[in-house]
Amino acid sequence: MNATRTLHDLGQSLWLDHITRNLLTTGVLRRYIDELSITGLTSNPTIFDHAIKNSKDYDDAIKRKLAQGKSGEKLFFELALEDLTEAADLFQPVYDQTCGVDGWVSLEVSPLLAHDTKSTIAEAKNLHAQAQRPNLLIKIPGTKEGLPAIEEAIFAGIPVNVTLLFSDDQYLAAANAFMRGVERRIDAELKPDVRSVASIFVSRWDVAVAGKVPEALNNQLGIAVAKRAYKAYLGLLSSPRWMRAYNAGARPQRLLWASTGTKDPKASDVLYVEALAAPFTVNTMPEGTLKALADRGVVRATMPADGGDCEEILERFAGANIDVHSLSVQLQDEGAKSFINSWNDLMAMIRSKCAVLDRAS
């Protein structure tokens, strides 16, 4: 039994952080589902940028949309939804079998709206309506301005993938926004079962402190922060507030490990996946990491419910002059800016490709 199956049987969902039209048309995603226990999929602007730029798979669809007078964001979202709805259909049996716990795909709202609550809500509603799939999550950043949008989206019945979370306190803020949306539905006598995941980014921590800490601490910060967040997650799930919501028919927001591809070439390429094995969580990983896990990954132990050695490790980073709280704020801010840059790159590539195809037609 390979490690992907082991993690699945342990109770962790493995999602692919990758999508291309070729992945769908060649049956590769279907094979990952059947052979590597993949039960969901996430996307982002960079993934689509590479997929559209580096192939001709989207050219015919782009030409059709150009003929219909479409361009820019509208054209892109239609392309993305074509891929994601097809992927959602592949995961529909998992969604049905797990009663909506698993089998999800994710689409991100425009990162340009990361600090615009009202526009984020409007776009989340619009994209969810366009998709017409029950198992599509709308990605909303867990920034200060994103939190009200998360609450309003949940209240509106829109499943949400909260992205750009880096710490336990950022996670708890997102979880509270989710809970407020659920509690408002309960008070309004609406069905409170609106699904969500909260995505903690892991590897970016270690990239941020590379070369700034003793070698013995290399590639340990992200895992320590994740352990602290996992402890907070389990504590929240067992709290009286959540129990009351469960009793009214709500279902938990699951913790998701994101950015789990190893960035340090000297470290194991399955470092984060092996360290973040935990029931009732999701690990979304790049295609290369998934293949490495299936080929040589080993699941030795699950994450400790009490955080294990995380506080000891974090104290050692404090001793190396790393302010974890300040760094979490910095990482979220930089992540929001990076998403915007990626989005702008994507839009520029779409314009360029449209221009080339229009001239050729």
Description of the molecule:
The termini are far apart. Helix 5 (59-67) crosses helix 16 (324-360), helix 7 (117-131) crosses helix 8 and helix 9 (168-187) packs parallel to helix 11 (221-237). The chain is of the alpha/beta class. The longest helix is centred in the last third of the chain and has 37 residues, at 324-360. Strand 3 (105-108), helix 7 (117-131) and strand 4 form a beta-alpha-beta unit. The protein is built from 16 helices and eight strands. The protein has an eight-stranded parallel beta sheet with strand order 2-1-8-7-6-5-4-3. It has helices at residues 3-10, 21-25, 28-36, 45-53, 59-67, 72-97, 117-131, 146-155, 168-187, 203-209, 221-237, 240-247, 271-275, 287-296, 310-319, 324-360, and strands at 13-17, 38-42, 105-108, 136-141, 160-165, 196-201, 254-258, 281-285.
Point out poorly predicted stretches: none
Number of strands: 8
Average per-residue pLDDT, rounded, comes to 95
The rounded distance between the terminal residues' Cα atoms is 51 Å
Largest sheet: 8 strands, parallel
Can you count the helices?
16
C-alpha geometry: globular
Helix/strand/pairing category: alpha/beta
Strand order of the largest sheet: 2-1-8-7-6-5-4-3
Strand content: 5-15%
Order of helices and strands: HEHHEHHHEHEHEHEHHHEHEHHH
Short overview:
The chain is 57% helix and 12% strand. With 361 residues, the protein is α/β, with parallel strands linked by helices.
